Amino acid sequence: MPTATFFRLPEEKRKRLIDASWAELTRVRFADASINRIIAAAHIPRGSFYQYFEDKEDLIRYLLEDMREYFISLLRNILMEAKGDLFALPLLAYGRFIGQQGHTDPMLCQFIKIVRLNEGMDMQSFMGGPMQFLPDPLWEAVDPARLREPSREYADQVFHMTCAVLAFAIVETLQNPACVPQVRERIKLRTDLLRHGGAADGYKEEPL
Amino acid sequence: MPTATFFRLPEEKRKRLIDASWAELTRVRFADASINRIIAAAHIPRGSFYQYFEDKEDLIRYLLEDMREYFISLLRNILMEAKGDLFALPLLAYGRFIGQQGHTDPMLCQFIKIVRLNEGMDMQSFMGGPMQFLPDPLWEAVDPARLREPSREYADQVFHMTCAVLAFAIVETLQNPACVPQVRERIKLRTDLLRHGGAADGYKEEPL
DNA sequence: GTCGCAATGTGACAGGCTGTCATGTATTAT
DNA sequence: ATAATACATGACAGCCTGTCACATTGCGAC
Fold it and tell me: Cβ(A197)–Cβ(B196) under 8 Å?
């Protein structure tokens, strides 16, 4: 987390640093991002940077937090469009992320570049972090009657799985943009799997 | 990929380098791993290293390839125990990975340390790489009659989802070893979701 | 206003790391 | 024996990071 000092900084200076950071992170991979270049672009002395952030990872975590909040609100809107149907989330959100209008939304633009550069941006930090459990604003938009079990715990699990479908679809597309139609089909198939199950009817399960 | 020269190296020298590499990679994160330390430990001159590998990532990719093959054979065994039931894979494999006997298997030991150090070792490179599609040896062990649709394409999707369940369970456990029982329950719930679906019966789907 | 303390700004520096390259040595083919 | 090819090696240039001693500013107390 940035230091208190950072938040007390004059607006303009803080913005300069943030902008330069995004510019660097959308240009090269996290691993190759250089504090040197960031502070040079932002005209911030080296010592000052370390007064605000512990290190590069501290900075990155902070920047990604913004994204996380943005996505939650985006997903909330989509979920409301879908009348609270969690299973509809992957395909709808995919369209929003990959479709044309994605290219006008600055936050989505940054996200897309980052996922491209970082071969999936360590999906775990996204799935395990923001998308591990259903955030409150999203839970409010869920229609529990659509779930086999209307509890929040159950919704958590469904949400996690649908998010995984969405995340892999996005990563796959950004690494091979030619395959949008196949990815769409795959999302439909996986969503259907989550809705109705993939086991043959009436086959006895192996005991666990 | 390592150069041809690397493979022509005398056994002993190659082993020294590989061992030192594993030692480094199970001690610090990928990001912090140092070629300097590896070559010092292996008594390999700097110039030689670059004759064998392009860079650190080249080395890491090569080492992880071994792991991948090992896992496929491990999962194959488990799948055969489960009489070809893909849905049984996550819980069974989880027990094998996290249970006691994991600590005697050298490859599993390395895997566990690496996942711990790298907060999930960039799950994407594992899911998107080795586990994106059902590898042939695994497909041979699947009983397609247990699937709603017995095609290989369908099995691919089911496999991908079960692997995701397994992967997240492992990562979660290694980051918080206290929660094994909860994670077990979560695996069961998610597996059940994949088997029988999570949508309420008879609810009309939102059109996509 | 001025004294003093706390907060902040600053850039030189030490120590690490990487990738290259010129030069040396072994091996093979002719 | 000679040339050509493959391989070994370590010094080096260049980059990067985190720190630290010192300068500067802001601000309340007197």
Answer: yes
Q: Chain A closest CA to B3's CA: distance in Å?
A: 24
Q: For tokens 């089909």, what's the residue? A: A185
The C-alpha atoms of residue A122 and residue A119 are separated, in whole angstroms, by 8
Determine the angle formed by the axes of helices B106-117 and B56-81, rounding to 10 degrees.
120
Residues A194 and A148: beta-carbon distance below 8 Å? no
CATH architecture of A1-54: Orthogonal Bundle (1.10)
Query: pLDDT of B132-157, one tens digit each?
Result: 789 999 999 999 999 999 999 999 99
Which one-letter DSSP state was computed for residue B162? H
pTM confidence score: 0.91
Q: Where are the domains of chain A?
A: 1-54, 65-196
Task: Give the whole-angstrom CA distance, residue A203 versus residue B98.
Answer: 29
User: CA of B53 and C1' of C19: distance in angstroms?
Assistant: 11
User: Do A24 and A18 touch, CB atoms closer than 8 A?
Assistant: no
B208 touches strand D (CB under 7 A): no
Number of Cβ within 10 Å of residue A96's Cβ equals 17
